[in-house]
Amino acid sequence: LDVADRKYRFRLLNSSNARIYLLTLSTGDAFTQIGTESGLLPVPVARTAMEMGPAERLEVVIDFSGKLGQELYLDDAAKVTHLLKFRVTQHVTDNSIVPATLRPLPDIGEPILTRNFSFDFTSNHWTINGLGFEPGRIDARPVLGTTEKWIFTNPTGTTHMVHIHDVDQQCLSRDGGPCYPWETMKETWLLGSGETLELKLKFTDHTGMYMLHCHILEHEDDGMMGQFEVVAPSPTPTSTPGPVTISGNISYCPNPSPNPVGNVTLALTGDAQSSTLSNGVGGYSFTGLASGYNYT
Questions:
Q1: How far apart are CA 21 and CA 23, in angstroms?
Q2: Residue-wise over 82-114: b if at least 16 C-beta within 10 A, else e?
Q3: Beta strands 114-122 and 147-153, pairing class
Q4: What is the mean pLDDT of residues 225-237?
């Protein structure tokens, strides 16, 4: 690939069925990672080596400044092999910069429920929570508009690629510690042998059926897949207001003390019209009125 001596933005996708790459530059220079499969990171991250499993995407900036006339390679250090040759053949003036801040992490609220998923090997098959894929089975029913915590564990001796459909996920912790700075929000996660990954996700888009699975093709084809159904919130029941009563006493105020006014007709107006007669001690009552209205 012919390039000029300037910065370039590359979008990388691992579309292999199972191969995990360890991407490096032959010069030892660092990539500047600016994004994942879920878009821009909060801040750029300098990385000299980038592990990249099936279905993962990386968005990086490579700076070829000062390398006019040179050849360099994008390498897979895991296989010790060249993947792509860069030939720096043109000189240009490059005034571009990588901003110090990119996109803030969206606030998706706090989880109201926790679910656990073990990516395991059961009865000679790759499974989730000991179960192979069954089209008629629903493994979780999150409610639209809610946020949940999903915990993934890998008790096997091999790596799995956790891939969740529907919405992006944010990393809460990896093995009980902080997440890597380049995995704040993604949709495909490398889960190494013995690792535990805690994610949170908010179901904001649509109701319906979605998949979660290992994105290593041989694992998902063997049954390491599950389904979840995003369901609508239950309607909040509307209570029917009961009848209310307005009551009191009517009196006139001579000096020195008030006296009840009995046997007089009182009229109620406003949202309802009614009348009643005060008793011998001035007491009156309007009963059976609908609540939530105005009365005078």
A1: 6
A2: eeeebebeeeeeeeeeeeeeebeeeebeebeee
A3: parallel
A4: 92
Other Cβ atoms less than 10 A from the Cβ of 41: the count is 21
Beta strands 259-260 and 39-47 are unpaired
**pLDDT tens digits, 79-92:** 999 999 999 999 99
- pLDDT score at 257: 64
User: Residue 293 pLDDT more than 80?
Assistant: no
Mean pLDDT score, 167-192: 98
DSSP for the chain reads -EEESSEEEEEEE---SS--EEEEETT-PPEEEEEETTEEEEEEEEES-EEE-TT-EEEEEEE-TT-TT-EEEEEETTTTEEEEEEEEEE---------S---PPP-----S-EEEEEEEEETTEEEETTB---TT---B-PBTT-EEEEEEE--SSS-EEEEE-SS-EEEEEETTBPPPTT-SEESEEEE-TT-EEEEEEE--S--EEEEEEESSHHHHHTT-EEEEEEBPPPPPPPPPPPEEEEEEE-EE--SSS-EE--S-EEEE-BSS-EEEE--TTSEEEEEEEETTS-B-
A 10 A CB-CB count for 22 gives 14
